[in-house]
Design brief:
- The structure is a single chain.
- By secondary structure, the protein is α/β, with parallel strands linked by helices.
- 34% of the residues lie in helices and 19% in strands.
- It has 10 helices and 10 strands.
- Strand 9, helix 10 and strand 10 form a beta-alpha-beta unit.
- It is globular and about 55 Å long.
- The model has no long low-confidence stretch (mean pLDDT 93).
């Protein structure tokens, strides 16, 4: 390890992790030796293994930004999490529960219900099998959901928006459906809803927001309230197999490659 000129917050021998705060064309991390800017490096708590540390920062910082920084999550909120078995979805479950919210996890089918409940979800809705709007209203006793953190979007978004509470916030951070998001006008007007796009770079490229995110995640990891989810670890020479496994969509949590 080497430390560049002018960098004072790190020293040779420090155990550090990387936060995705740069374009993938700027710096490469698929290697035994990598060069990274100081702002993208963070020390991690001593209670984490290197594997756990590698599985932490992208997912927890992303979820922190959507739920806390921009979603203004409050204790008692009903929170809907799309694609809940993804690494960010699992991180969002932990942060939402930590903040005192009730978590409603979305998955395409009920096949992963037990896993999601084990990970902390209070309710699970299968978007391909259930009447999403009716289920959300049933769970919330007709009051509607306060916060949505969703990487899917598409036409199905209307089913969620139609079951939102007054002053609800819909944060979309992906486009897994590839269709334009369907936004019904009358719920937005009548309930004063906010529909907002969100990117991780909104946190990681703003020094003040990144500092707050680092502290939030570091404290959560150190206390054990936040725990990284690792599905499978591959050796470095198994990089092709790791990508095939990623494409199979079987994982629950992060896939790691170990040098």
């Amino acid at each position: 390890m080497a430390v560049g000129e002018g960098v004072s917050e790190f020293a040779i021998g420090d155990k550090v992790s990387v936060i995705p705060s740069f374009m993938f064309t700027e710096y490469g991390t698929y290697g035994e030796v990598v060069n990274l800017p100081a702002h993208a490096v963070v020390k991690h708590p001593d209670n984490l293994t290197l594997e756990q540390a590698a599985a932490s920062w992208m997912m927890f910082v992303t979820a922190y930004g959507g739920l806390v920084e921009f979603g203004n999550i409050q204790a008692g909120d009903f929170v809907v999490l799309g694609a809940a078995t993804s690494s960010v979805g699992l991180a969002a479950i932990q942060i939402a529960k930590q903040q005192g919210a009730t978590v409603i996890a979305l998955s395409r089918t009920h096949a992963k219900d037990d896993v999601l409940r084990q990970k902390g979800a209070d309710f699970v809705i299968a978007t391909n099998e259930d009447d999403v709007t009716a289920k959300l209203l049933e769970i919330t006793d007709g009051k509607g959901v306060n916060l949505v953190f969703d990487p899917v979007g598409g036409k199905e978004a209307a089913k969620i928006i139609n079951a939102m509470a007054h002053n609800g916030r819909y944060i979309i951070y992906g486009a897994l459906s590839h269709d334009d998001i369907a936004v019904p006008v009358f719920p937005i007007l009548g309930k004063h809803l906010t529909v907002r796009g969100y990117e991780l770079f909104e946190i990681t490229t703003v020094p003040e927001k990144l500092a707050k995110a680092k502290k939030f995640v570091f404290d959560g990891l150190a206390s054990g309230q936040l725990q990284p989810e690792i599905d499978k670890v591959f050796a470095f020479d198994e990089m092709i197999e790791a990508h095939h496994y990623l494409e199979s969509n079987q994982q629950i949590g992060k896939i790691l490659v170990k040098v």
